[in-house]
Specification:
Distance between the termini: 70 Å
Structural class: alpha/beta
Low-confidence stretches: none
CATH class of the largest domain: Alpha Beta
Number of helices: 13
CATH architecture of the largest domain: 3-Layer(bba) Sandwich
CATH superfamily of the largest domain: FAD/NAD(P)-binding domain
Strand content: 25-35%
Helix content: 25-40%
CATH topology of the largest domain: FAD/NAD(P)-binding domain
Mean pLDDT: 97
Length: about 475
């Protein structure tokens, strides 16, 4: 027996459940197929558990600095087993809320693996066997951690993010392979938890894709914290010896560690939905091929989230899930622009940005003017004791030589992931520095440094 829906989504991560929820809110009958846990990587082995453990690291760091504020405490000791319990409570609470929300919106959830075949038929194998059909299908099969040759994942000595997020004891010595956002977050967290950390990155700088000044600032901060950072190096394998192993890298480098964390990005699961008999294409990287409206070559079939070649961010998945619903309803929505989405990295110091880096703006042919202000002169930053970092604004230079449209906003420092909103809106509304500078910034706040940085681009500044 075949069950019909207006829309069937294969994959219950952020992109998939967003599509199903938004479809239901738009009056469509939606079915959602998920082979594991609703919420996907983000909720269970990604964004949420990682940030919870990073918050544990932040609390530990704060307690260690308590004496600076006149608060006398003993040397803090972290109990990761307790932190893991708290993490699971957060995950379980959000998971329960998501399940209730889908039920409340009358989204029919099928437990099992969905396979898309001819004529928009979706066969569900597993917990809830079913055959579904709908005029519109959304592929949201997500991604999995990438691995590298010579480092077989055993879950004990060599791990990915999946296994690391369940540790109950910090290793004495650890090497993190990959200096992107995930690798930098893990290196920062493990350092705070007391591990001796080595970070290896193949590219010339950590945090590829970030503004060069931001990446350099984080690398300096890491080295100040005794994180041993090596850039421009390849790893060549490792030699286990009991409970430890020696990782070989670069020309003749090596380091003995108790744990290897492979954090070299995520692999799209483009072929996870079968696709036999369809015109859906999967490229050699594993991404489902889509046009700028996230449509595949099979009419009525879309793909969203980590499985397409757009930024692998949960909030981008949310936006894409809502976009395809608007598109199939004929509302002609504006496509998500990958170059202007917000990015947040929760290392210490934090990094947040939206829009073009200074280098990318120049490469795109823009004549630019740049302003940068440091947190060391910000009153709130001094109060909270976090003065490392800066705000950098990249603006287009007009014919009269004055700064005009804001092209990019880049922040490094305390709680910048919560400060990006103004910069993101400025970039996406194509606001000019004159327009943004006219707004009043509350004082004393960390966010007023953004206003000060923009104000200086008008040719007149207050404090800077």
């Amino acid at each position: 027996m075949t069950t019909s829906h207006d829309l069937v989504v294969i994959g219950g991560g952020p992109a998939g459940y967003a599509a199903a929820l938004f479809a239901s809110a738009s009056g469509l009958d939606a079915g959602l197929v998920e082979e594991s846990k609703l919420g996907g990587t983000c909720l269970h082995v990604g964004c949420i558990p990682a940030k919870e453990l990073l918050e544990t690291a932040s609390v530990l760091r704060t307690v260690r600095q308590a004496a600076e504020f006149g608060v006398t405490v003993g040397e803090p000791v972290v109990d990761l087993a307790v932190s893991q319990e708290r993490k699971q409570q957060v995950v379980d609470g959000l998971s329960k809320g998501l399940t209730g929300l889908l039920a409340g919106r009358n989204v029919t959830v099928y437990a099992g693996t969905g396979h898309l075949g001819v004529d928009h038929m979706v066969t569900v194998d597993g917990g809830d066997p079913a055959v579904l059909q709908a005029p519109h299908i959304v592929l949201a099969t997500g991604s999995s951690p990438r691995t590298i040759p010579g480092f077989d994942i055993d879950g004990t000595l060599v791990v990915t993010s999946d296994e690391l997020l369940s540790i109950t004891e910090a290793p004495d010595r650890v090497v993190v392979i990959g200096g992107g956002a995930i690798g930098c977050e893990f290196a920062s967290m493990l350092c705070d938890l007391g591990s001796s950390v080595t970070l290896l990155e193949a590219m010339p700088e950590i945090l590829p894709g970030c503004d060069a000044d931001a990446a350099k600032a984080v690398r300096r901060a890491f080295r100040k914290r005794k994180i041993d950072v090596h850039v421009g190096v390849l790893v060549h394998g490792h030699d286990p010896d009991g409970s430890a192993t020696t990782v070989r890298f670069g020309d003749d480098g090596s380091v003995e560690v108790d744990l290897v964390v492979v954090a070299v990005g995520r692999r799209p699961r483009g072929d996870a939905a079968g696709l036999v008999g369809t015109r859906v294409e999967v490229d050699d990287r594993g991404f489902v091929v889509v046009d700028d409206r996230l449509r595949t070559a099979e009419p009525g079939v879309y793909a969203v989230g980590d499985v397409v070649a757009t930024p692998q961010l949960a909030h981008v998945g949310f936006a894409e899930g809502m976009f395809v619903v608007r598109d199939l309803l004929g509302e002609n929505p504006v496509p998500v622009d990958p170059s202007t989405v917000p990015w947040c990295i929760y290392s210490h110091p934090e990094v947040a940005f939206a829009g073009l880096t200074e280098a990318a703006a120049r490469e795109a042919g823009h004549d630019v003017v740049v302003s940068s202000h440091r947190f060391m002169g910000n009153g709130r930053a001094m109060i909270v004791g976090e003065t490392d970092g800066f705000v950098k604004v990249v603006a287009e230079k007009g014919p009269d030589g004055r700064a005009g449209r804001i092209l990019g906003v880049h922040l490094v420092g305390p709680w910048v992931t919560e400060q990006l909103g103004q910069g993101y809106l400025a970039v996406n509304w194509e606001a000019t520095v004159d327009e943004v500078a006219a707004f009043i910034q509350p004082h004393p706040t960390l966010s007023e440094l953004f206003g000060e940085t923009v104000l200086s681009l008008t040719g007149r500044s207050l404090h800077g």
